[in-house]
Amino acid sequence: MSRPAQLFVQAERRAGAALAPLLHRRHKRALRRGSISAASERAARDSWWGGDPRWYAGGTPPRQHNHITPLVDGQAFFESLHEALLNAKNYVYVAGWCLTLDVPLRRREPDDLVQTRLTDVLAVTAQRLPVRVLLWSGAVALIRPTTRTVKRIQSRLNNAGGDLVCSLDSTAVFTHCHHQKAIVIDGQVAFVGGIDLTTFAGDRWDTPDHVLRAGVNWHDVALRIEGEAVADVEANFRQRWEAVTGDDALPTKAPAVDQAWATPAQIVRTIPQGRYDFARRGEYGIHHMYMEALRQACNYVYIETQYLWSPDIMDALSELITSRDPASFRVVVVLPARATSGKWDNDHHVEKLRQTDAGRGIFEAYSLFASGPTTGEKAFSYRPIYVHAKLAIIDDEWCTVGSANLNNRGLVTDSEINVAVRDPALASGLRLRLWGEHLGVSEQQIAAMPPSAVIDSLWRARAAANAHITEQGGKPLVSSLHQYQVGLSPPDLVLDELEVETFEH
Is domain 3-29+284-483 in CATH 3.40.50.300, yes or no? Predict the structure, then answer.
């Protein structure tokens, strides 16, 4: 790095360090103003879920009867969505950060690349039923998607034919965005998670094998929801749609509920203060959910997130690391090796947690890599898999998946939507699915061991083996795991704490 660049970075860090406390105090005030009312707390105490503080009393209540299917990585999500769209009978509602109009939903056959393009599927669907799409209006300049780009997308959708209407939500303040990723079909099926219907910043379609490809490999997770909670995902869309368009007459249909579905789930949101009349004081259910779930952790905390910056989350993780038994308790965080507009901040916070751990062996941070044959002097290439998932699993009993990263954008200042689930079978099954993918071993092998033993043996051993392979070259990785490395790229030349140009995706 040149001397002028070094001076700029030093100035940026000093300015950011000075601004961070001011912004944190502002965010704390927002959280206080959006706190749960006394009436809501009283109602919660009298409900079936009132004894569990992880449920959020300030939004829609948790629902008892749901069937939830994890969709790990893009292929599973896009194919499940494609099937649901083909079978839609009444209406389709899409709330997103951005769309890529020609992204294919299926890629098994050559014809799929043309015949299952998103715009065409939505347009065909709109020939028989209403399709409504609500997108963030985009950035004014510099950062993709720009407002100009999003307006082109809107125009194409609105001229695609049928009863297809796309509206743009411009209520976010200049430095932030609308980040929800939620789809509702017929009031019967909903999709919530981290996966965007776009190729901006990277193609979301990938498989759990993460075969090395020309573009960046992509790891992500969403949930397919059936049951009572679908109505709450739809209510979120209807609230935002009416706030933006004034239209309060969207069709609605109560979800069919099988009483045998017994997964308790709650739709929780981040709604910034002052953006919408339906939540003028803001709604901070995702922040509440994470803080309470972390406080109650007994055995392990597993997190996948694009950004690990939130001061409150950092304090909660530090408290766990210093107070829990190092013989049995573990905290594992999986981050992108080079987070877009956030590498330096992720590095800084991973270092802080490692210092807090001080060799006790509780905290581990990892990233994911793909490997494959390449051209040139070395036979194999090793490239990061972009970790875009936003999830946590705690104690094989509780989990959440959604759009919110663990920074103040996800927990305070951007619109977000998550699903909180209290179900041992689903939580443990999702852990086994993810760990099997990252470790390159069978779920049965992992299930036979306590989580702490898997982390101490398999996670560390696989990461060490891959570190040796990447140093020597000449053969593929044994799995995707690497120890998270700090300081491998220069910091972003922006004020990360202000995040003026960091529009999440």
Answer: no
pLDDT in tens, 333-376: 999 999 988 899 999 999 999 999 999 999 999 999 999 988 77
Cis status, amide bond into 145, omega within 30 of 0? yes
Is-same-fold flag (3-29+284-483; 66-266)? yes
Residue 224 CA to residue 82 CA, distance in Å, equals: 12
Domain 66-266: which CATH number of 3.90.420.10, 3.40.50.2000, 3.90.228.20, 3.30.870.10: 3.30.870.10
* Structure-block tokens of residue 251: 């069709």
Please give the biggest Cα pair distance in the chain: 68
Output the CA angle 296-418-408, nearest 5 degrees. Answer: 80
Q: What is the DSSP string of 449-502?
A: S-HHHHIIIIIHHHHHHHHHHHHH-SS--SSSEEE--SSSSPPPSS-TTTTTT-
- Single pTM value for the model: 0.92
Count of residues making up the chain: 505
141 contact partners, CB below 8 Å, separation of at least 6? none
By the 10 Å C-beta count (0-12 exposed, 13-18 middle, 19+ buried), 173 is classed as exposed
Six token digits for residue 19: 């601004």
Structure tokens at 497: 């704490």
Residues facing 36 on adjacent strands: none
